Amino acid sequence: MSETPVADMSFEEAIKELERVVTQLDRGDVALDESIALYERGAALKARCEAKLKEAEEKVAKLTLSQDGQPTGTVPLDG
Amino acid sequence: MDLFEDDEPAKADGNAPEFTVSELTGSVKKTLESAFGRVRVRGEVGRVITARSGHMYYDIKDDRNVVACNTWKGQVAGLGVVPEEGLEVIVTGKLSTFGPQSKYNINVDSVEVAGEGALLAMLEKRKAALAAEGLFAAERKKPLPYLPEIIGVITSPSGAVIRDILHRLRDRFPRKVLVWPVAVQGQSCAAEVARAVRGFNAMTEGGAMPRPDLLIVARGGGSIEDLWGFNEEIVARAVSDSDIPVISAVGHETDTTLVDFVSDVRAPTPTAAAELAVPVRLELLALVDQQGLRLRRAVTDAVGRRGERLRDLARALPRPDTLAEGPRQRLDTWGERLPVALRGVTAKKEVQLARLSLAPAALERRITEERRRVAALADRLGPALDKRLRDGRKEIRAMHLRPPDIARARERFTDRMARLQTVAERHQTKRATGLEALEKLRLTLGYEATLERGYAVVRGDGNVITGVVAAKTVDSLEIQFADGRVEVGAAARKPGRKAKPKDPPDEQGSLL
Fold first, then answer.
1. N or C: which end of chain A has fewer CB within 10 A?
2. Strand B103-113 to B176-181 pairing
3. Which residues of chain B does A18 touch, with a Cβ-Cβ cutoff of 8 Å?
4. A19 contacts in B (CB within 8 Å)?
5. What is the CATH number of the domain that holds A39?
């Protein structure tokens, strides 16, 4: 199993790991104990994925620039 | 102009005023500048020299003539197009002179590429140069993040492009978007876009202005001149240097700018850029759900399969009673055979024994043999005894008997005999005395003495009778007195000998 804690995973890492776990379980050749551990890990990964998907928050900002073109701050921008 | 109006040079020579070189030069300069002012000249760029000072010196020429051009350092940035040798351009500037070298030139503050063909030719040249540097190499392309957290968009903050991008992002997967406003055409376009790309890269992750993990450089469609800023080398180099992956979406699908070659992914339109930037959230949710279902099913199946196998195995497991059946049957079989076998063995041994039946002849033979041995030993006994006797006699004779020893021995013997006599007599007397005393005691204790005092002893059938019951059971009674015994009622009792024990009372009665 990967050493990255599930809570630190990006969505992509988590979904890839989840797919790996599911595939491994699907093969059905894992020991019972291990399959329970895998299931728990899979459940954690799924929760992580869902959390990352829930973070779908839109926030659009426009940079304000100084006279020489350096960013000085942000202002909301309506799309 | 009146200086040259005199058409009689010979005459004029004398009257003409003299100029110093500087006066003339200054006059020429004034005249040229006032007569031409700003000019627009079309020509091909010749040799280009950029001095260490930053000023540029170059020529524009046509097939017959050449005009010298210069652009001061401070003007270079505003040129629009940096002159390159061979490029067909239209330069705009002020016509002037350069006195120290008797030259005239144009101080150029704006350069335009003359015509689409010229522009494309220049673009091809740049492309070739950058390709030679390896800026377009496939291995330089960075993979796009699967799901970027923050997307930096470099485009005009107003207009359809940013709206298209934000709209499509919202449809697919709403994200944080940071827009860096730039001019998307005109002279400042290239410099602003390049600065924006470098500016986003300079941001720190998680800072007040968080660094995006994906950039989109976008512009709507336009003429090649409109898009020219995205063909500038500074833009291409900034995008190529970017550590953040860049999606380029400049113009329509048919418009290809230099930035498209150096970006990591080229999107045909700004909308397509948004599609490349983020996955579709609903699809991901469905995917996660599906994985969750598979996960649950897989683990349920795993447990179920094992349960099934356990049940199968349990069925196949023999029951304890059936487990014992085989051995029990064997025990029964052998148990039954055991007595049979024993009887068989006994019978067999009996047969053997019978077969062995003692043969008297053998015994007799044995006895005869033994007898012969005894006779042989007896025969040897006589002579052996004789021999021993003779030997003994010989030994005795050989012994030298000495008389003094015999005499002394006899003396000792006599003495011992005398002592023995004395001791024996003493013992005899002591015992006789003891015996007499014991006899007296016996007589006192014995019943005989009591008989003399008038008591009698009754016996029946030899036993002493001490009671009536015993007396009734015997055939005859005998009474012992001190001076002898007398039998009582022997004759009278004779017929009752065989009488039952009931009868005696009557007889007893008559008897008494």
1. N
2. unpaired
3. 288, 291, 295
4. 291
5. 1.10.287
